[in-house]
Amino acid sequence: MRHLQRVQKLVFGLQLFLLLCLPIPSVWATEPPPARQTELRNLLKNDCGACHGLTLKGGMGPSLLPEALAGKSDELLVTTILAGRKGTAMPPWKPFMNRDEVVWLVGVLRNR
Question: Quick count: other Cβ atoms within 10 Å of Cβ 102?
């Protein structure tokens, strides 16, 4: 019986360790309230669309359509939006939105 308890504690500890080491998936991010979702969609259409094209098919910036984003990880997209891209016209958007909002926005882009 004592051996079983040790094994159970070990398994629990391993599960906890793995949980803490894994990146948090996008689906766990907090969804913005409806009014903020509207603001973010408008920002996507108007501000992002200024460089990425009004239909997001590309322009000065690359396409943001789902097929163009398919090979890119959510983390890469989130980091690019938050921090911008040095040497390009892509500015950092961190002053205007938080990480959860960007994760939500990436989900919107992937499901257009």
Answer: 23
CA 22 to chain centre: 16
Domains of the chain: 32-110 (1.10.760.10)
Cα 96 from Cα 33, distance rounded (Å): 16
Report which of residues 4 and 36 the model is more confident about. 36
Residues 44-100 have pLDDT tens digits of 999 999 999 999 999 999 999 999 999 999 999 999 999 999 999 999 999 999 999
* Alpha carbon separation from 106 to 14, 74, 77, 87 (Å, rounded): 32, 7, 7, 22
Res. 2 pLDDT band, cuts 50 70 90 = confident
Compute CA distances 51 → 11, 34, 72, 92, whole Å.
50, 26, 19, 14
